[in-house]
Design a protein that fits this description.
- With 261 residues, this protein is α/β, with parallel strands linked by helices.
- It folds into two domains: 173 residues, Rossmann fold (3-Layer(aba) Sandwich); 66 residues, no CATH class.
- Strand 7, helix 5 and strand 8 form a beta-alpha-beta unit.
- The structure holds adenosine-5'-triphosphate.
Length: 261
């Protein structure tokens, strides 16, 4: 059985200024088996973030339903960990306190939390920064701490919304590789929203493409590139290049330099 089942999801918003109805998502259907990493991609405004928010339980779909392990999602829960673009760390807590907070959510006794938090911090390569506050870290380090905090809760599903969007290109590639390395040790099921075609392919087992608004699933492609993946090799793989070309054509991106939509 699939871990996540998205069935006929529809989302209409009412504009709070002019009262107009905007159908962001028309009819979206797809499933994710346990342990799979799925990228969700599509043109701007097609409802990627909305879809992720519905799975997170932050937004209630106006139509259809979403099931996690057979149970209908009706609100947020500790079984789903969300990593946002803007890190979502508590600014008043040190890195280790931020990560330990995730463990508290999981119900871990206080006596074990610090030790486990330090282990998670080591896993994301932040040892030595345990006592720093978020403002003392670079964007890439803050994002690593955010990933550590979510992983610490051992979520059934990890939901990531453009987690590397505000990070410079060089650091971004390093982080993508690191997040994959960590993912391979725990293998949580992931729904990863991005508008970067190369990132979508590099990270995932599967790329689900939404059409323009009001969206439906336009394509659902398996990525069979070998793991572990490193940019130096994966970017030259003929399958990577073939998929990139196909997705860019599908999304109407002409130039290689414009791989980011
Ligand atoms: N709370 C809201 N109220 C009204 N309209 C909304 C709301 N949230 C999203 N929308 C509209 O729904 C559509 C889909 O938005 P969403 O942010 O989900 O798209 P997206 O694919 O993630 O876009 P992008 O790639 O630009 O981030 C857009 O037209 C947006 O303006």
């Amino acid at each position: 059985m699939s871990l996540l089942q998205i069935e006929h999801v529809q989302q209409t918003y009412v504009d709070q200024y002019n009262g107009e109805r905007v159908t962001a998502i028309d009819d979206v259907n797809f499933t994710i088996p346990e342990g799979q990493f799925v990228s969700l991609i599509g043109p701007s405004g097609c409802g990627k973030t909305t879809m992720l928010n519905i799975v997170a339980g932050f937004v209630k779909a106006t139509g259809g339903r979403v099931l996690l392990a057979g149970e209908q999602i009706t609100g947020p829960g500790v079984d789903r960990g969300v990593v946002f673009q803007d890190f979502a760390l508590f600014p008043w807590m040190t890195v280790e306190k931020n990560v330990a907070f995730g463990l508290k959510m999981r119900g871990m006794p206080k006596s074990q939390r610090l030790e486990e938090a330090r282990r998670m911090i080591g896993l994301v390569g932040l040892e030595g920064f345990e006592r720093k506050y978020p403002h003392e870290l670079s964007g890439g380090m803050r994002q690593r701490a955010g990933v550590a905090r979510v992983l610490a809760t051992e979520p059934t599903m990890m939901l990531m919304d453009e987690p590397f969007a505000s990070i410079d290109a060089q650091t971004r590639r390093t982080l993508q590789q690191e997040v994959l390395r960590i993912w391979e040790t725990q293998r949580p099921t992931v729904l990863f929203v991005t508008h970067d075609v190369e990132e979508a392919i590099f990270m995932a087992d599967r790329v689900v493409v939404l059409s323009g608004r009001p969206s439906t699933v336009a394509a659902d492609l398996d990525v069979t590139l070998p793991r572990p993946r490193v940019w130096k090799e994966t970017a030259r793989d003929p399958e990577f290049l073939r998929m990139r070309g196909r997705l860019m054509t599908m999304l109407g991106v002409e130039d290689e330099e414009e791989a980011e939509l």
